[in-house]
UniProtKB/TrEMBL annotation:
Domain Amidohydrolase-related: 54-395
Superkingdom per UniProt: Bacteria
InterPro entries associated with the record: Amidohydro-rel, Metal-dep_hydrolase_composite, Metal_Hydrolase, MTA/SAH_deaminase
Matching PANTHER family: AMIDOHYDROLASE-RELATED DOMAIN-CONTAINING PROTEIN, AMINOHYDROLASE SSNA-RELATED
Keyword field contains Hydrolase: yes
Keyword Ribosomal protein part of the UniProt annotation: no
SUPFAM superfamilies from the UniProt entry: Composite domain of metallo-dependent hydrolases, Metallo-dependent hydrolases
Lineage: Bacteria, Bacillati, Actinomycetota, Actinomycetes, Pseudonocardiales
Keywords, alphabetical: Hydrolase
Protein name: Amidohydrolase family protein
C-alpha cells in the first residue's frame, strides 16, 4: 500500500523520458515509488485525481526576495529605474523585524505554491535585526515548501557613496559570522533536503570586493552555493567601469566567483566572450523576465547562454512593479519575452518547462530535483486545464499549458505531501498570517491601520 496515488492525468510529463498519457504516480515515504500508464494502478492510502490535468515536476524558483511583498505596488517606487526604486524602498525596509520577515516569507511561499512552485530560494539582504533567516526557515517548514535560503548582505551604504541608508547594512565580520552560523544550523546535505543555505552578497555595487572574495572562500570551505545579482542594469556596467575600470563579469571573475558553485540573477548584458566564459565555469543564470522587462532592460540572452552550456533557470524575483510570485506566470512571460527577443523558433514551451524544472534545479545544485523519477523526492504539480480556456487544445498539452490560461495549480505536492489540494492551500494559519501581513505592510509603508 502506497501513501499517495496521483492518477488519471491527461498527460504526465516527467522530464525524465517519454510523456505518459493517462499516467499515474505512486508515492511512498516522500519519494516517487512507481510510475505507470492507464490500468494497473496500485492501491494507496490517499488518492488525488489528475483527470483533466497536466502533471509536471514541481517548478523551482531560482531568484526571489519574499520580504518585498510587504511593499509591493508602493506608489513611491513605481515607474522609476532600479537605483531610484531601491532608494525609495530602503527607508520602508529599514522597519523590518523578525515578525515581518516570518509573515512575509509565509505568505510569499503560499503564493508560490499556488503557482506550482515546490522549491524556492530566497535572497534576504536587509538585516535590521538578528535571526531573520531563522524566521524564514520556520515559515518555510510550516508552509511545507522546499526552501533554499540565501544569506544576503550589503556592507556599502550612503557614507561610502552607496545607495543604501547606513541603518540597513552590516559589517563584513557580522555578515560572515552569521553566514557560518546559519550553514552550521540549517544546511542539510542529504538527498531530499528540505532546507539548504547559500551565501548571497546583494550585488557588486552594494558590497566591497573583499566581501565578495571572503564570501566565495567561505562558501568553498563550507561547501555551499553562491548567489548574487549580476549584469542586471546598464547602471551596473557604468559603476564597474568607474570604480574598477572593468566590466561586471570581469570583476565577478576577479573576486573568485567564476565557478559552478555560483548562480546569478539576470545577466542581461553579457557579451559573446562573457557568455562563453560563464559556460566554461558552469555558472548558472536565473532568468527573471518580468523585472528586466519592467526596467526596460530586455530579457536575458537565454538561447545564447544555453548554447554555451550555462544552466539557466527561471525566477520570479518579486522585486518589480508587478511583484507577483507565480512561477507559471514567470514561465509564460519567459516564453513571450524570449520569442520577442530572438524569434518564434528560438524557444518552445517545452524549453521553458525544462528551464523551470531541471535547469532551475541545476542552478540550486539539486540533481535530485526537477524530474519525476522513481526514487526522487515526490515534488509534482497537477495543473487543471480549465475546460473553457483549454477548449480546442489537443495536440500538444505542454505548449497549450504555457499559452492558454492563466493556470494555477490544482494540487502542489512537495515531498509527497499536498501543500495545495483541489486549488486550496492547506494552511490553517493562513487567514491569521494575512491579517498580520496587512498590519505590518501598512506600518512599513507609513499608512494608518
Ligand atoms: Zn533580485
Amino acid at each position: 500500500m502506497y501513501d499517495l496515488l496521483v492518477r488519471d492525468a491527461d498527460l504526465l510529463v516527467t522530464m525524465d523520458g517519454d510523456d505518459v498519457p493517462g499516467g499515474w504516480i505512486a508515492v511512498s515515504g516522500g519519494t516517487v515509488a512507481a510510475i505507470g500508464g492507464p490500468g494497473a494502478e496500485p492501491a494507496a492510502a490517499k488518492t488525488l485525481s489528475a483527470k483533466g490535468s497536466l502533471v509536471t515536476p514541481g517548478l523551482v524558483n531560482t531568484h526571489q526576495h519574499l520580504f518585498q511583498n510587504l511593499t509591493r505596488g508602493n506608489a513611491a517606487a513605481m515607474n522609476v529605474d532600479l537605483f531610484d526604486w531601491l532608494k525609495a524602498l530602503y527607508p520602508m525596509w529599514a522597519g523590518l523585524d523578525e515578525e515581518a520577515v516570518e509573515v512575509s516569507t509565509y505568505v510569499g511561499l503560499a503564493e508560490l505554491a499556488l503557482g506550482g512552485c515546490t522549491t524556492s530560494m530566497d535572497m534576504l539582504y536587509v538585516h535590521t535585526g538578528p535571526n531573520f533567516i531563522d524566521a524564514q526557515v520556520r515559515a518555510a517548514q510550516e508552509v511545507g515548501i522546499r526552501f533554499h535560503a540565501t544569506r544576503g548582505s550589503m556592507c556599502l551604504s550612503q557614507k561610502d557613496g552607496g545607495l543604501a541608508p547606513d541603518s540597513v547594512v552590516q559589517t563584513p565580520d557580522e555578515i560572515l559570522a552569521d553566514s557560518e552560523r546559519l550553514v552550521d544550523k540549517y544546511h542539510d546535505r542529504t538527498p531530499g533536503a528540505m532546507v539548504q543555505i547559500g551565501l548571497a552578497p546583494c550585488a557588486l555595487a552594494l558590497v566591497t570586493p573583499e566581501l565578495m572574495r571572503d564570501t566565495a572562500e567561505l562558501a568553498e570551505r563550507l561547501d555551499v552555493r553562491l548567489h548574487t545579482h549580476l549584469s542586471e542594469v546598464r547602471a551596473e556596467d557604468e559603476y564597474c567601469a568607474r570604480v574598477f575600470g572593468k566590466r561586471p563579469v570581469e570583476v565577478f571573475e576577479d573576486v573568485g566567483w567564476g565557478t559552478d558553485r555560483a548562480w546569478v540573477a539576470h545577466c542581461v548584458f553579457p557579451n559573446a566572450d562573457e557568455i562563453r566564459r560563464l559556460g566554461q565555469w558552469g555558472t548558472g543564470v536565473a532568468h527573471c523576465p518580468t523585472p528586466t522587462l519592467m526596467r526596460g532592460a530586455g530579457p536575458t540572452p537565454v538561447p545564447e547562454l544555453r548554447t554555451a552550456g550555462v544552466p539557466v533557470g527561471i525566477g520570479c524575483d518579486s522585486s518589480t512593479h508587478s511583484a507577483h510570485a507565480s512561477m507559471w506566470l514567470e514561465a509564460h512571460t519567459a516564453l513571450v519575452a524570449l520569442k520577442g527577443r530572438s524569434g518564434a523558433g528560438a524557444i518552445s514551451a517545452r524549453d521553458v518547462l525544462e528551464m523551470a524544472t531541471t535547469g532551475s534545479a541545476a542552478c540550486l545544485g539539486r540533481a535530485d530535483l526537477g524530474r519525476i523519477r522513481v526514487g526522487a523526492p515526490a515534488d509534482l504539480v497537477v495543473w487543471e486545464l480549465n475546460p473553457v480556456a483549454f477548449a480546442g487544445a489537443h495536440s500538444d498539452l505542454v505548449e497549450a499549458w504555457l499559452r492558454c490560461g492563466p493556470v494555477q495549480a490544482r494540487h502542489t505536492i512537495v515531498q509527497g505531501a499536498p501543500v495545495v489540494e483541489s486549488g486550496e492551500l492547506r494552511l490553517p494559519r493562513l487567514d491569521d498570517m494575512l491579517a498580520r501581513h496587512r498590519r505590518i505592510s501598512r506600518r512599513l509603508q507609513g499608512l494608518a491601520g
